[in-house]
Amino acid sequence: MAEVTLVEAVNLALVRAMEDDPDVVVLGEDVGINGGVFRATVGLQARFGPERVLDTPLAELLISGLCVGMAAQGLKPVGEIQFMGFLYPCIDQLVNHASRIRNRTQGRLTCPMVLRTPHGAGIRAPEHHSESTEAMLAHIPGLRVVIPSSPERAYGLLLAAIRDPDPVVFLEPTRIYRAAKGEVEDNGEALPLDVAFILREGRDITLISWGAMLKETMAAAEALAAEGIAAEVIDLATLKPYDEVTVLGSIAKTGRCVIVHEATRTGGFGAEIAALIAERGLTSLLAPVARVTGYDTVIPMARLEQKFMPSVGRIVAAARKACQFN
Amino acid sequence: MADGGLPVIARFEVRHRNYLAPDGSINRPLPAFASDASLLASLYRAMVLLRNFDRKAVALQRTGRLGTYAVSLGQEAVSVGIASAMREEDVLLPSYRDNGALIWRGVKLEEILLFWGGDERGNHFSGPVQDFPFCVPVGSQAPHAAGVAYAFKLRKQPRVAVCMFGDGATSKGDVYEAMNFAGVHKLPVVFVATNNQWAISVPLRLQTASETLAQKAIAAGFIGEQVDGSDVVAVRAAAEDAIAAARDGQGPRFIEALTYRLGDHTTSDDASRYRPEEEVQARWKEEPIARLRAFLARQKIWSKADEEQLAAECHERVEAAVERYLAAGPREAETMFDHLYADLPEVYVAQRRQLAGEGDG
Ligand SMILES: Cc1ncc(C[n+]2csc(CCOP(=O)(O)OP(=O)(O)O)c2C)c(N)n1
């Protein structure tokens, strides 16, 4: 089995999906000869031709809208938006069309599309390249929002997303595109959507995160272990619809919870999880649910970016405090 | 060389097509299909049915039995003319005002009433199964049309996507983005702008400084033409040509159908607040139904008796549809979860049960 980076795993999944299914079409800006600005689509056009791997004009609304039209014809378009900051023109198509065409036509038309985009801060990118607005997408009924946190899950979840009969927004954590390496068996096997992954078991506290922040979250769990605190770490992986059962099951076991996301705090997806636990896990709770998040600011440019991001230290401190609460 | 010695590197033209004058006389030789009297009669019948249907729908809305409704009054020739040039296997991507096109393509009147009556079952209609439902966010269906046409091209299917929208929609980037892409890939798609001069209260001159809407196609690299949208023969002829060219691999076309919205924007609108009555009265003299009737009468292929019979048929058909619409049973609340996803994710099953009155909430 080969060690690959997360972005290489994305590429493997795309190749596999296109090999398996002639209806899979990849489209976006620079995805063809250039192989995508992050090289996620490298080699695809040479292999599958410019009709199935097409460089679109520079028009994000168009990319998402084309996907809807193609998908309604039974193609399985995989659109790429170069950075999440440029996804916003697609919101109209996602909210008004992709996510509800099945529902509003009572199943007559469907939308098996995937929209991929790099997600998140921490790469010293220019302005508007470091967005973590997944909560906005997770609010949309009828959509799936998926964020992998490792090459293995990038491969398996992207295959699942492409095969899924409904629209999926697939957010790829830019910060660990190349930093995350792992063995991926290119066996065409998908991982389940809508299911959270328990990355580490523990009795004392539950740490919940997704995407690139799992790197700091796992490091925090290590540090806590050295202090004798056994943290359970959950990779939520699918944010819409999310795996309430795994979350509540873990809280029932540990009684304590810290939610970690780099997205700004107010209305972030952590708030949703905290509310779920308040509604359905309160009697298990031994301490208030804590959130370690980005601040309610615009994600700053490179010089202050690291100050914005949750650090291992902040996560450890929040977990320690939760464990000391009684 | 033009003035000052600067070379002119390109010239463009926008043609305008018209056959029938407002009084039903002929301006120039008619297209081949116009020798088919029964086809002309069926275009006429479809327009009259639409006007009857609109009248009834407004009455239903006024009496609280239908939601907001958008009438086609004055514009009947556009949706009927366009749809009549399509083949069954083509795909229509209509705007919310294109009832006439849906009806031509086999959507039942009661289904359209269901839609405007606030029931998604109306969108599961009896028309061609791949046709899109009415698009409410203005212009956002144009990229879908390009996507549909791309699928046709990729699969080498001789099919055409026909996308309809209003003049207001042409101000949106969506429409230009779709046209631009369709031009690049020579897609089999026909864009139709129904230029009824108004986008709710905003007149065309505040929508664009462009002399025609048709010329917007030039920027996207294909032919745009204007057609007299109150002349159903012209609309159908333009649509036939454009659809045939698209099917033949010649790429997209754009048709600007010049017409006039004689009624309010919707049943929630009062056009007298922004539009002088004299303007509307003047435009009544050009409306498409009287125009075609005058032509048919001149040709002696339509009689007073035909007219009376048609009126009775329309009345009967519309009333029967209304009855079926009103008799459509209510939907169970929990069905709002149906078709949300292919399979309802487990986490939403409890919410569904709650709606069904089985949950604890
Ligand atoms: C994107 C969007 N913005 C605003 C509206 C509200 N709205 C509904 S119809 C309309 C005017 C549209 O005019 P036009 O495109 O000319 O079509 P017409 O109604 O004249 O057929 C507006 C502003 C909408 N439905 N969608």
From TrEMBL, chain A:
Q: Which SUPFAM superfamilies match?
A: Thiamin diphosphate-binding fold (THDP-binding), TK C-terminal domain-like
The residues covered by the Transketolase-like pyrimidine-binding domain are 4-179
Q: Name one Pfam family in it.
A: Transketolase_C
Key word Oxidoreductase present: yes
| Record-linked CDD domains | TPP_PYR_E1-PDHc-beta_like
Q: Which GO terms describe its molecular function?
A: branched-chain 2-oxo acid dehydrogenase activity
Catalytic class of the enzyme: oxidoreductase
Name the EC number(s): 1.2.4.4
User: What are its cofactors?
Assistant: thiamine diphosphate
Which keywords label this protein?
Oxidoreductase, Thiamine pyrophosphate
Protein name listed in UniProt: 2-oxoisovalerate dehydrogenase E1 component beta subunit
Enumerate the InterPro entries for this protein.
THDP-binding, Transketo_C/PFOR_II, Transketolase-like_Pyr-bd, Transketolase_C
